[in-house]
Amino acid sequence: DVPTSYAEAQGNGGETHQTTGDPATTMTSQQGIPVSDGQNSLRAGPRGPTLLEDFQLREKIFHFDHERIPERVVHARGTGAHGVFELTDSLAEFTTADVLSKVGQQTETFVRFSTVAGRAGSFDLARDVRGFAVKLYTAQGNWDLVGNNIPVFFIQDSIKFPDLVHAVKEEPDRGFPQAQSAHDNFWDFASLMPEAWHMVMWQMSDRTIPRSYRTIEGFGVHSFRLINAEGKSTFVKFHWKPRQGLQSVVWNEAVKVNGADPDFHRRDLWEAIDSGDFPQWDLGVQLFDQATADALPFDHLDATKLIPEEDVPVRLIGTLTLNRNVDNFFAETEQVAFCTANVPPGIDFSDDPLLHGRNFSYLDTQLKRLGGPNFTHIPVNAPRCPVMHFQQDGHMAMINPKGRANYEPNSWGPEGGPRENPELGFKSFTADVESPKARLRSETFADHYSQARMFYLSQQPIEQKHLGDALVFELSKVTRVDIRARAVSHLRNIDDNLAATVANGLGMALPDPAKAAKPTLDLPT
Ligand code: HEM
C-alpha cells in the first residue's frame, strides 16, 4: 500500500491542484514526452533515495543549471520594445539605402534602452549614460544604430575602452560601487584623461538622470557616410528627438525613486506601451560634405566633439514608434545583439577610430555572450529579408543552406545557390588613404576643453547649478585629495567660475589649471 505520489500520500486520491486536466496544456519534457507528475521526483519509496533513472528530474535540473548567460560587459541592465520606423522625408539623393529612400515606408524595429555601468540587477536612476540601441529590419538587411543619450563619448580611440570601463565599473578588490561614478578609480582615470572632460560635463549635467526612457534623446555619435547611386559620399550624424520632450529629474528625486522602485524606468516604458501610450522619436540627420568637414575647427572623426546644430542643422526625416512590449524578456531583450558594423548598402563608416574598434568589439563579445556564430538565427536577431550564403554549421545552427553547393564559385547553375550582385550588393566607399603608419591622432583631437566650455555655457543658470552640485557631490566621495585637485584643474580650463564653485564646495584651494592644448573655438572665457 505504498502511495505512488505526494498527492496520494495526502489522501486525495491522486489529484493534485497543479493538474489542469486539460489535454491542450499537457506539460512535456524538452523531448515532448508528456509529464504526469512534475512535482515529485522518482524515489525508492517515500523515504528512500532519489533514482538516477528519473530523466524528467535530470532534464529539469540540467536545464535550470544552464539558464544564465554572461550579462553584457557594458550596458548590462536594459529594457527592450518592438516598434516601427516610418520615413517622412526621402534621402534618396544621398543614399541607396532603401530604408531612407521611400517616404511612407514602414520598417520593423527593435529598441533596447540601457544604463552603462551597473550590473543587470542594479537600479534605473543611476547617474549614468543611457544606451539607445535601434535595430531596423530593412529590406536590405539589418541596420543597427547603436547610440547613447549623449552626443559625445569619453574617449577618442577604442584602445582606451577597456580602461574606461574598468575605471567606471566596480573596483576590482571590493566589487563596489557598481552603478555610480562617485568613486576614486573613475575620477583618478578621468582626471588623467583630458579628452574625457567634454563628456564628463554632460555626465554631471541633468542629462544623466532622465525622468524616463521616453524622455531621452539618442545620438549615433560618430559620423557615418551616406553613399548614393553615383557613389558620392555625404557625411551624416544621426539624432533621435523624443516627442515626449527631453526631461530629467533632480538628484534628490533620483535617489528616492531608486529606493522606492529600482525598476522605475523599465516599468514606466512597459506601462506606457501596455496602455497604448506609444512613445515616439523623430529621426534627425546632420548632413555635411567633405568641404564642410574640412572647414570645422575640429576633426569630426573625434567622438569627443559634436557638430553644433546651429552650424549644421538637424533635418527630421522619419518617426520611430514603440508599440509592442516583448513576449519574453530573455528571448528578446537579453538575446538581442546590436553591432555598429551592421549597415545596409548606402550607409558606410567614417574613419573615426572609436567606431572602427566598435565594429570589431560587438560581434566579438556576442560570439561569447550568445554562445557561438549562429545568434542571427535567434528570431529577434534574424533579418526579415531573405538570407542566403554558404556559411554553415557551428553550435545551434538552426538553418543550414539547402542544396548541393556550399562553396563559390560553383558551376551548378540555378541549383548552385546565391551569387554576388555587384549592382545591389554592399560596396565600401572608395577613399584615398596614404599616410605613415603610426599611433597618431590628428592635431585638433588635442583640444579637450573648447566644447566642454561650449556645453557648460549653453546650460541655463539652474542647470549650471545642478552641474556644479553634482561635481561637488561626486568629488566629495573621492578619498584622495590629489585626485580631487587634478579634477578641478581641468575645470579651470573649462570655466573658472565653475572651478571656483567646486573648489569652494570641496573646501580646497583652487589648483593651477591643467596643462592644456590650445583651444580651437573662440568662446568667451
Ligand atoms: C554595448 C553604445 C563605445 C563595446 C553597447 C550598447 C550601447 C552602446 C547602446 C548596448 C547595446 C544593447 O542594448 O544591447 C555605445 C556608444 C559608444 C560605445 C554610443 C561610443 C560612441 C564602445 C566602444 C566599445 C564598445 C568604444 C569597444 C571598443 C561595447 C560592448 C557592448 C556594448 C562589448 C556589449 C554588447 C553585447 O554584449 O551585445 N554600447 N558604445 N562600445 N558596447 Fe558600446
TrEMBL record:
UniProt keyword list: Heme, Hydrogen peroxide, Iron, Metal-binding, Oxidoreductase, Peroxidase
Enzyme class: oxidoreductase
GO BP term, example: response to oxidative stress
A single Gene Ontology CC term: cytosol
Tree of life domain: Bacteria
Every Catalase core domain range: 28-416
Residues annotated to bind heme: 72, 112, 161, 358, 362, 369
Composition bias, Polar residues: 15-42
UniProt catalytic activity: 2 H2O2 = O2 + 2 H2O
Cofactor(s), names only, from the UniProt record: heme
Record: active site: 75, 148
Segments of this protein annotated with the region Disordered: 1-49
EC number: 1.11.1.6
Function: Decomposes hydrogen peroxide into water and oxygen; serves to protect cells from the toxic effects of hydrogen peroxide.
Family, per entry: Belongs to the catalase family. HPII subfamily.
Protein name as catalogued: Catalase
Lineage: Bacteria, Pseudomonadati, Pseudomonadota, Alphaproteobacteria, Sphingomonadales
